[in-house]
Amino acid sequence: MILAGLRRLAKTVEQEARNMPITASILEHDVLGPLFKKVLLEGRQEGVREGMLTILSRMITKRFGALPGWAIVKLAAMPVSELEVLNERLLDAASVEELLK
Protein backbone atom coordinates (compact mmCIF):
# COMPACT_ATOMS: atom_id res chain seq x y z
CA MET A 1 0.00 0.00 0.00
CA ILE A 2 2.78 2.40 0.89
CA LEU A 3 4.68 1.59 -2.30
CA ALA A 4 1.60 2.28 -4.39
CA GLY A 5 1.42 5.73 -2.82
CA LEU A 6 5.10 6.34 -3.48
CA ARG A 7 4.70 5.54 -7.16
CA ARG A 8 2.47 8.57 -7.52
CA LEU A 9 5.20 10.70 -5.98
CA ALA A 10 7.81 9.77 -8.61
CA LYS A 11 7.87 13.23 -10.20
CA THR A 12 8.15 14.92 -6.81
CA VAL A 13 10.97 12.63 -5.71
CA GLU A 14 12.76 13.16 -9.03
CA GLN A 15 12.49 16.94 -8.65
CA GLU A 16 13.76 16.80 -5.06
CA ALA A 17 16.71 14.66 -6.14
CA ARG A 18 17.63 17.27 -8.77
CA ASN A 19 17.41 20.09 -6.23
CA MET A 20 19.34 18.25 -3.52
CA PRO A 21 23.11 18.70 -3.65
CA ILE A 22 25.08 15.49 -3.60
CA THR A 23 27.70 15.78 -0.89
CA ALA A 24 29.00 12.23 -0.76
CA SER A 25 30.54 10.02 -3.36
CA ILE A 26 29.36 6.45 -3.69
CA LEU A 27 33.02 5.56 -4.18
CA GLU A 28 33.61 6.51 -0.53
CA HIS A 29 30.84 4.24 0.75
CA ASP A 30 32.22 1.39 2.90
CA VAL A 31 30.20 -1.35 1.22
CA LEU A 32 29.37 -0.04 -2.25
CA GLY A 33 32.61 1.86 -2.84
CA PRO A 34 34.87 -1.16 -3.44
CA LEU A 35 32.28 -2.72 -5.75
CA PHE A 36 31.94 0.42 -7.85
CA LYS A 37 35.72 0.88 -7.98
CA LYS A 38 36.11 -2.69 -9.23
CA VAL A 39 33.48 -2.17 -11.93
CA LEU A 40 35.07 1.13 -12.98
CA LEU A 41 38.51 -0.49 -13.23
CA GLU A 42 37.17 -3.41 -15.27
CA GLY A 43 35.39 -0.97 -17.59
CA ARG A 44 38.55 1.06 -18.09
CA GLN A 45 40.58 -2.06 -18.82
CA GLU A 46 38.04 -3.27 -21.35
CA GLY A 47 37.98 0.19 -22.94
CA VAL A 48 41.78 0.18 -23.26
CA ARG A 49 41.67 -3.30 -24.80
CA GLU A 50 38.94 -2.37 -27.28
CA GLY A 51 40.80 0.82 -28.25
CA MET A 52 44.03 -1.09 -28.80
CA LEU A 53 42.21 -3.73 -30.84
CA THR A 54 40.56 -1.08 -33.02
CA ILE A 55 43.78 0.79 -33.71
CA LEU A 56 45.82 -2.34 -34.30
CA SER A 57 43.19 -3.71 -36.69
CA ARG A 58 43.25 -0.45 -38.65
CA MET A 59 47.05 -0.45 -38.82
CA ILE A 60 47.16 -4.07 -39.99
CA THR A 61 44.49 -3.34 -42.61
CA LYS A 62 46.38 -0.27 -43.81
CA ARG A 63 49.60 -2.28 -44.14
CA PHE A 64 48.36 -5.62 -45.49
CA GLY A 65 44.83 -5.02 -46.76
CA ALA A 66 41.56 -6.43 -45.47
CA LEU A 67 41.90 -8.81 -42.53
CA PRO A 68 40.86 -12.40 -43.15
CA GLY A 69 38.18 -13.80 -40.84
CA TRP A 70 40.58 -16.05 -38.94
CA ALA A 71 42.76 -13.02 -38.15
CA ILE A 72 39.81 -11.02 -36.81
CA VAL A 73 38.83 -13.93 -34.55
CA LYS A 74 42.41 -14.37 -33.34
CA LEU A 75 42.87 -10.67 -32.59
CA ALA A 76 39.54 -10.48 -30.74
CA ALA A 77 40.63 -13.28 -28.41
CA MET A 78 43.98 -11.73 -27.50
CA PRO A 79 44.62 -10.08 -24.13
CA VAL A 80 46.12 -6.59 -23.89
CA SER A 81 49.63 -7.94 -23.31
CA GLU A 82 49.60 -9.78 -26.66
CA LEU A 83 48.09 -6.80 -28.48
CA GLU A 84 50.96 -4.66 -27.16
CA VAL A 85 53.50 -7.14 -28.55
CA LEU A 86 51.73 -7.14 -31.92
CA ASN A 87 51.97 -3.36 -32.08
CA GLU A 88 55.74 -3.69 -32.16
CA ARG A 89 55.85 -6.80 -34.36
CA LEU A 90 53.69 -5.03 -36.95
CA LEU A 91 56.69 -2.88 -37.87
CA ASP A 92 58.75 -5.87 -38.97
CA ALA A 93 56.17 -8.41 -40.19
CA ALA A 94 55.97 -9.12 -43.90
CA SER A 95 52.40 -10.49 -43.83
CA VAL A 96 49.36 -10.95 -41.60
CA GLU A 97 50.25 -14.63 -41.34
CA GLU A 98 53.75 -13.82 -40.11
CA LEU A 99 52.42 -11.21 -37.68
CA LEU A 100 49.86 -13.54 -36.11
CA LYS A 101 51.83 -16.79 -36.12
* Spatial gap, N to C terminus: 65 Å
- Helix-strand pattern: HHHHHH
Supply the number of helical segments. 6
Helix/strand class: mainly alpha
Can you count the beta strands?
A: 0
- Report the major sheet: none
Number of domains: 1
| Unreliable runs | none
Oligomer: single chain
What is the residue-averaged pLDDT? 86
The share of residues in helices is: over 70%
Beta-sheet strand percentage? Answer: under 5%
Q: Rg, please?
A: 24 Å
Using the alpha-carbon principal axes, give the shape.
elongated
Set out the fold topology.
Layout lengths: L1 H6 L2 H10 L12 H33 L4 H9 L2 H10 L6 H4 L2
Characteristics of this structure?
101 residues; 6 helices; mainly alpha; single chain
Write a structural description.
This protein has 101 residues and is mostly helical. The protein has one domain (25-99). It has helices at 2-7, 10-19, 32-64, 69-77, 80-89, 96-99. Helix 3 (32-64) runs parallel beside helix 5 (80-89). The chain is elongated.
